[in-house]
Every structure is written in C-alpha cells, then in structure tokens.
Amino acid sequence: MNGYFLTDRGQVRNHNEDAGGLYMNANHQTLAVVADGMGGHRAGDVASEMAASNLHKKWQTAEKMTTPEQAEDWLDLAIKEINEEIFSYATENEECKGMGTTVVAAICTTDFVTIAHIGDSRCYLANAYGFKQVTEDHSLVNELVRSGQITKEDAEHHPRKNVLLKALGTEQHISMDVHTLGWEEGNTLLLCSDGLTNKLGDEELYALVKDPIELEELAKRLIDVANSRGGEDNITLALVHYDSQQSKVGMNDAP
C-alpha cells in the first residue's frame, strides 16, 4: 500500500478548516481520513482537527481488520464516539457552539476497503472499470438530484449547493453511510474535500489519477488545478494506491 496526504489553505481563505491524514495501525493497515470543518460555523477547524486526531488515536490501538464486518463496526463505533466528543465540546465551549465537520474515512486492507462518511467530502475508486464516486453526498442539492427535482448540471450552480443535511458534531446522535468494496493491485482510492470537487469534474479527476506518476506529484497537481481556478475553499485530499511494495505513507501539511 502506498499513500499520500496533502492539504492546502487555497487562494482566498485566511486559515485552513480542513484536516486529515494517512495513519498506520500496529498491523501496518492504513486508515485514510479527510475532514472539512463546516464553513460559516465558528471553530470549524477545531471540529475537523478533533475528528482527524481522535480517529488517529483510536486507529493506533485498533486490532487487525480481517473482515468487512469488523472494519464496518470499528468505523461506526469510532465515529459515533467522536461525534459525541465534538458535540460535548461545542456544548461546553461557547465559542465553539454550532461547529461541525464532514468526515470521510477508509480502512484499506489487502483484501478490501471499508468506507464511512458523513457530509459531502467524497471517496472515489479508480480501477480497471474506470473511475467512480463511491460515496453519496449528504447535501441538499444531492437530495434534489436523487429525487429528480433538479439535474446534476443544475446542482453545480445551485445557490444552496453548500447546505449539508448532516455533519459530524452538530447533533448528539448521528448516522453515517458505511460500506465495503473489493479492490486489487493497481487500484487507487481518492478521498477529498469539496474544495477539490467543486473545481474538477469526475472526468478531469480520472484523467489525472490514471496518469502513472508518483502520488506526491499527483496530489500537488490536483491542488494546483483547484487553486488555478480560484481556490476559494480549502483543498484536502488523501490518495491510497494498492501496489505490491511494502506499505508507506506520506503527509504534507501545506500552509
């Protein structure tokens, strides 16, 4: 397994409300995390950092994931515990009241990938069949698309595009989407915040992801394109490539 994580403030925001990383447990299994603090809410950066850092701490002591059921249960329990921690912190600290964050997390083993998410940070899988978004945005516009009220094209420019239907830490009890996919050597997983997907469409993402270059260079190219198109939001991504080499991960917290 080979991975790389990169986050960037963008061209407009004066601070970064995204967080995340690539984390290894004692059994050399990888957990990829991207969290996007809710824009327009105070302390979004606090919420996203709590989500990422607490998942990291829990993963360090996690047992080896041998079945999809075990991985799904672990993510469900860990994220629900972190939700309560963020909610309690916001309740006890007036300056953080109302804060929240998206989260998308993927446990990557040699046999399967288990993905959990809340909000509109996404996960994509590139394999022999192409490139596919494997998460469903928990957003108002996506629900309008799903119900047939607007088209995908309408959604791109909808005035309420950034309205989330659920987020981590905003309610005491939450539900998330958790599912498992098979994958194999040569496949690539992309987790990202909407600072990337608001600037690059799926076809553009696939054209870059399938290019046979180092993951560090790929990550920088993706963020450079988003920034060249305005970079109004923070941009964060995690890449995991299934190869036959010994596991290695890289991280770079850009300003």
TrEMBL record:
- Give the highest taxon in the source lineage: Bacteria
Read off the SUPFAM superfamilies from this record: PP2C-like
Q: What is this protein called?
A: Stp1/IreP family PP2C-type Ser/Thr phosphatase
Q: Which CDD domains match?
A: PP2Cc (cd00143)
Q: Provide the PPM-type phosphatase domain boundaries.
A: 2-242
| Entries under SMART domains matching the protein | PP2C_SIG, PP2Cc
Q: Which PROSITE patterns match?
A: PPM_2 (PS51746)
InterPro entries associated with the record: PP2C, PPM-type-like_dom_sf, PPM-type_phosphatase-like_dom
